[in-house]
Prior knowledge:
The structure holds 2 protein chains of 2 kinds. Chain A is of the alpha+beta class. Chain A has 2 domains: 161 residues, Immunoglobulin-like, CATH 2.60.40.420; 89 residues, Immunoglobulin-like (Sandwich), CATH 2.60.40.420. Helix content of chain A is 42%, strand content 18%. The longest helix of chain A is centred in the first third of the chain and has 37 residues. A 3-stranded antiparallel sheet of chain B has the order 1-2-3, with no helix packed on it. Chains A and B meet through helix 1, helix 2, helix 3 and strand 9 of A and helix 3, helix 7, helix 8, helix 9 and helix 10 of B.
Amino acid sequence: xxxxxxxxxxxxxxxxxxxxxxxxxxxxxxxxxxxxxxxxxxxxxxxxxxxxxxxxxxxxxxxxxxxxxxxxxxxxxxxxxxxxxxxxxxxxxxxxxxxxxxxxxxxxxxxxxxxxxxxxxxxxxxxxxxxxxxxxxxxxxxxxxxxxxxxxxxxxxxxxxxxxxxxxxxxxxxxxxxxxxxxxxxxxxxxxxxxxxxxxxxxxxxxxxxxxxxxxxxxxxxxxxxxxxxxxxxxxxxxxxxxxxxxxxxxxxxxxxxxxxxxxxxxxxxxxxxxxxxxxxxxxxxxxxxxxxxxxxxxxxxxxxxxxxxxxxxxxxxxxxxxxxxxxxxxxxxxxx
Amino acid sequence: xxxxxxxxxxxxxxxxxxxxxxxxxxxxxxxxxxxxxxxxxxxxxxxxxxxxxxxxxxxxxxxxxxxxxxxxxxxxxxxxxxxxxxxxxxxxxxxxxxxxxxxxxxxxxxxxxxxxxxxxxxxxxxxxxxxxxxxxxxxxxxxxxxxxxxxxxxxxxxxxxxxxxxxxxxxxxxxxxxxxxxxxxxxxxxxxxxxxxxxxxxxxxxxxxxxxxxxxxxxxxxxxxxxxxxxxxxxxxxxxxxxxxxxxxxxxxxxxxxxxxxxxxxxxxxxxxxxxxxxxxxxxxxxxxxxxxxxxxxxxxxxxxxxxxxxxxxxxxxxxxxxxxxxxxxxxxxxxxxxxxxxxxxxxxxxxxxxxxxxxxxxxxxxxxxxxxxxxxxxxxxxxxxxxxxxxxxxxxxxxxxxxxxxxxxxxxxxxxxxxxxxxxxxxxxxxxxxxxxxxxxxxxxxxxxxxxxxxxxxxxxxxxxxxxxxxxxxxxxxxxxxxxxxxxxxxxxxxxxxxxxxxxxxxxxxxxxxxxxxxxxxxxxxxxxxxxxxxxxxxxxxxxxxxxxxxxxxxxxxxxxxxxxxxxxxxxxxxxxxxxxxxxxxxxxxxxxxxxxxxxxxxxxxxxxxxxxxxxxxxxxxxxxxxxxx
Lengths: 337, 631
């Protein structure tokens, strides 16, 4: 009973950051506000189709309404069973005009998609889907999770694989969807016109926490990106304070290392996200909650509070151990050069 | 003045009547009684699927709600899809078909009455089988298309997916049986003179539907059998680690799954093309084109399945080909819509309740059609697939066609089925609530998909701008729910207390109106001779409810018999003795139920006993009884 009540009050506390998030300006990741050429392909097809669709719908409604109104004025005896123009109208409108519009859109759509299929060089990134988070790997050995850093204004080629079930990578403002399928390797490319942050989310139903499998594409200037990539490839910062050192010891002596890697330490687990530079990330649990000391502590002790069904098990630690561990993890930023 | 005994009806009554009441409740083979069971059962599943949808909409009414945990949500959306598609949409159209097809083609029964009983009981049993999963809280949770490897043992170790796979195999037996029965009935039992080009469009729609089921169903049965083998018997069809491929499941499923859309669409369009001319007070303009369009849709529908897989990384040339067929499959739909319009503007449309539903449907069908065309474009589909845009699209198409023609048909054929008209005033209230609610519930989904909301998520964050659209959808869902419930109450009340209908309350043209309402056990006193595409309009003698022998009617009162005719020209070929009530179809269903529960629990003795009972009942079913066919 007591446990349940504590859980509930904790849940209340937990919703505070969510409320704080809500206070931020709402911003929808829309396919209609493309921020790069790959996504612009879709929106450039969307609008002509929406206009034609609207025109077709208006025509149908108008003609139907005309039929109903006209019907009030005529007498049943005046209905002619043979309609001389009937078959011609059906063929011209249904087969001719409809067919021409459809084939026109097909050609238009294929022409627009040619550039999507073209192979070109670019920054190579590998994304591996997991239940329910994203592993992101760079050619120089940099590894991170749930954040894909890219150079703005440059093409990036993403190679996709899955570690478990089918997922789908969707960044509405930047790129078409592409599935991550176990046993197969798929590819997608995109380019962000300008530096910025673009939200993405898994689009293929992948089980319990499909709803909490978000990520962010973060486009930096090419220089900043190059710096980031080389920082990300380096081993972890050594703990700077006694508390952080104690936290590292907690990490290394607990089950954490079974799943998580912190490069430069003995921790080399491969099942969960790489935590080498976790403090540089913005969220925990693939976009579920912002990365703060409080939420991180809660996440470690009871991750299911945020994400029921998550594969990470709860960890039992004393208050001091937890405090030390959180301090250590939040110190894992980029080492100063 | 003739006495009662002189009428051939009395002799026929003795030949065709089944024992009244509960005695034959389980053993009936009368297509009208079975059809009513079909309709009632499918409506129950509509309510269940609607309750599932309503609970989900409450959970999604606002961001971060905690009404449902993720597992429950996943079970609900899976069962909502399975229910609405397999247990409501397909069976309700089979139900209308089982009632109306024999009447519309001027026969007295389906070709295989006991098979008809079995396909009904099989449908109920498969539905009960799948729904029994709720009792142990382990309902299917892999989505209605059950993609591997999520549905493989490693990621779904419980019995959830077994309920899904075995349930669909079970249901497949029933729907295959129904397909064979319908196709045979339609091709071989039409009244003399009803050549193919005089066949009502609804019957064409049923024919297209059932032919599609016959060809599509094996792919689903194969896929689900393979899934069961992989889950429990160490097979590796979909396991890339052992040379299998997850895309194989997707191909097999959608080879079934896309034609399924047309399986639901075609009989619905058939209902529209039946009701529209009746109330436009004129024949359908472009009958031939509408029929060709229905058949063409069924055919092209088998060549578009890969458009469900545009984001799986298949080669772009293959995608372009399927994109083209997906654009082209809209042409037959365009032809039909323009035929509806031509009929409307050359007739005198009467705005009865069924007509309102039909007009509402045309609007919804056009919206669903144009959004479907948008998803035929590969790059645009890659942007919107698996988002709420697609949810909007297929609810406008599949939801629209399963709901509106069904409601229209309840008002239109209700007088024939129950002998009483449904209340028109409540009907119109129900229409407007359903129509407005439907559009409020589903139109905003287009927008939500475009602004980034993926489908099948049990919750969403508050800063994404999705809250208000979701709230609107929830409100729409409940409006629509109230609208549908009003019609259901209307059916229940009017079936007993409604205004008496008479033979032909709508002054319609097809043969089901050339007999009493509800029809007698033997459907027609004489098998009519058909001389027109619009027999009741063009052959005044049919208005009386019987075509006298001197006008060509055949009493066929020497036995429990129907007439078999030739395939194209409907020339009489044989007189066929029909079977009477039988318990075997029900017993067979019980046996199969045992077999499938045995397979589910993997208790061999249950499966073996169930299988043995099935075998016994098949033997009992086909045991010769000295029935003859005579030329």
